[in-house]
Amino acid sequence: MQYPNGRKSSAFTKLNHTGQTVYSNRGMSLEDDINDTNQYYLTHDIAIIHKKPTPVQIVHVDYPKRSAAVIKEAYFKQASTTDYNGLYKGEHIDFEAKETKNKQSFPLSNIHQHQIDHMKQIVHHGGICFLLIRFSLSQETFLFPAEMLFSYWEQQNNGGRKSIRYETVKKRGYIIPIRYQAKVDYLAVIDQYYMENGGTKNGR
Amino acid sequence: MQYPNGRKSSAFTKLNHTGQTVYSNRGMSLEDDINDTNQYYLTHDIAIIHKKPTPVQIVHVDYPKRSAAVIKEAYFKQASTTDYNGLYKGEHIDFEAKETKNKQSFPLSNIHQHQIDHMKQIVHHGGICFLLIRFSLSQETFLFPAEMLFSYWEQQNNGGRKSIRYETVKKRGYIIPIRYQAKVDYLAVIDQYYMENGGTKNGR
Prior knowledge:
The structure is a homodimer. By secondary structure, chain A is α+β, with helices and mostly antiparallel strands. The first copy, chain A, has a single domain (4-52, 80-196), classed as 3-Layer(aba) Sandwich (Trna Endonuclease, Chain: A, domain 1), CATH 3.40.1350.10. Chain A is built from six helices and ten strands, in the order ααββββββαββαβαβα. Chains A and B meet through α1, β2, β3, β4 and β5 of A and α1, β2, β3, β4 and β5 of B. β3 (70-76) of chain A pairs antiparallel with β3 (70-76) of chain B. Chains A, B: Keywords: Cytoplasm, DNA damage, DNA recombination, DNA repair, Endonuclease, Hydrolase, Magnesium, Metal-binding, Nuclease.
């Protein structure tokens, strides 16, 4: 099966997210790690979580005889939802993943209002929703529950700080174990945080 | 919010699925109806179900100064999953939608093996999974549970018929009510079929 995590497309979705292909020269990006992890989950029948294709507004397509249609003009569209969703132990999983080069904080400018709106809907309807934050320099990746993100988002909208301190992410979020096969084993945190103690999941 | 069901993109995803923009001159396609229905579900806080963007393999992108990146060469990729998924009453919903001009049967050639594989995974992990089949000429749309689809798929793989008879779809599937706002109100069938009697949903 062809998954949207093929290097090529992944390079371009990275490009779509960040406006540049970051870290292509210093190992795997968060997206690559997540795609590999999701592939591991899939092949080991643990969960079915896919990255959504990059939304593209197609303007012009050519149809050469005896060969595949060629898109000649298209533009990157802003996604209306988060990038990843799927199914784990009967639960709907929905998350966004962002990495920052900042050391001290995660800039909320990485998130868009419509993504927050979507995440609120997911939580409201009983899905498991979170943000994966990677601090690239320390190569630490945290799971930050959507419900916590909302409060910082509101603070920002009310004139508060436009970022979440690294210390806050570390304290209120959950560090994700790095494993050889599941490079960002976020489901381990889900098991611990949502499945065991119910966490802040809606209706639990 | 911009949803992937904007007419333009929808026209092209239709094109991607069928190789041609069908019925553009005879009213709404099944995809348009589903997108409108999902929009209705969303705005009325009933469910969060989106169509996935059309997977595109991007080969060449231009970056003009002071304007948006332009994709200059790209190709349609075969989707690795179904087209629609989301969250309804805490349940993971996953489905594919196909329309046929045939009167007597639904050709299984509309479905790909990797989609069947994906649907089996969804069912196995406790998601609600089905196929929406529209017979364009009669304008009837049916919900056909994935578990039933699997059996006909196996029959085909074992040399059986390569389509599902209209009468079978009508008998074993569930006709979807046409409503003014929710044009293909498939969640009405889900309520009746999965939520009430448990249906064939895995683990119910």
